[in-house]
């Protein structure tokens, strides 16, 4: 497998995060995979947003779960962009996707959409929550999953194996060569996030990572110089 570059929430370093504009930009810049985040709206839609509330990234306030999709659509998500739903992202770009489920409740809805649209080959499901990954694998056998972690120890490899994940996506500031080697010995691929500088990219290469998550298009362009 070649060294992967994953566009974080699209291309959030240069576009409003988790918007169609951001995802299209990531694809245009040649990112190998596009990462996005999912929550459920009050009426059960798969809303693409990182936070549980709309305060930080829109001109609104309050939890996503307390608004219907129609109400969420009224908000400005940056530069006039509207909050998308997962199905719109699938149609807007052709690149492979990493869909991060923020809570177990979203697993059911995501599984239904992926099954109906035959997306198991294109979409990898990722989460910080072990139980969410276990749930999606039960609902959608054969789905590829990755465990995400920020504060973690050596047991993160065991956790990934326990829920059937094939990849780890880890905070690069805590990564060690020993952990990467342990993960690879367990046949797990390892991504580092968030890699936004050339020094961080060189570190990722030195650690033998399988790819990086980045906010910036220049990291994608720099990859060929750090092989």
From TrEMBL:
Coiled coil: none annotated. One of its GO terms (biological process) is lipid metabolic process. Pfam families: GDPD. SUPFAM superfamilies: PLC-like phosphodiesterases. GO terms for molecular function: phosphoric diester hydrolase activity. InterPro entries: GP_PDE_dom, PLC-like_Pdiesterase_TIM-brl. Residues 3-224 form the GP-PDE domain. This is Glycerophosphodiester phosphodiesterase. The lineage of its organism: Bacteria, Bacillati, Actinomycetota, Actinomycetes, Kitasatosporales.
């Amino acid at each position: 497998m070649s060294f992967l570059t994953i566009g974080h929430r699209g291309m959030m370093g240069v576009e409003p995060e988790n918007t169609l504009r951001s995802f299209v930009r990531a694809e245009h810049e040649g990112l190998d995979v596009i990462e996005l985040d999912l929550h459920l709206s009050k009426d059960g839609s798969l809303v693409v947003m990182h936070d549980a509330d709309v305060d930080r990234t829109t001109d609104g306030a309050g939890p996503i779960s307390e608004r219907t999709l129609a109400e969420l659509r009224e908000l400005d998500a940056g530069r006039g962009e509207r909050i998308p739903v997962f199905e719109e992202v699938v149609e807007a770009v052709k690149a492979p996707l990493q869909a991060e489920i923020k809570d177990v409740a979203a697993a059911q809805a995501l599984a239904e959409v992926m099954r109906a649209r035959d997306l198991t080959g294109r979409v990898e499901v990722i989460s910080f929550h072990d139980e969410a990954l276990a749930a999606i694998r039960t609902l959608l056998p054969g789905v590829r999953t990755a465990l995400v972690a920020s504060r973690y120890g050596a047991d993160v490899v065991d956790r990934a194996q326990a829920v059937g994940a094939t990849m780890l996506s880890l905070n690069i500031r805590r990564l060690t060569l020993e952990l990467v080697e342990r993960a690879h010995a367990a046949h797990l691929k390892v991504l580092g996030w968030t890699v936004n500088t050339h020094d961080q990219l060189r570190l990722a290469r030195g650690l033998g990572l399988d790819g990086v998550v980045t906010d910036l298009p220049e990291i994608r362009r720099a990859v060929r110089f750090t092989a």
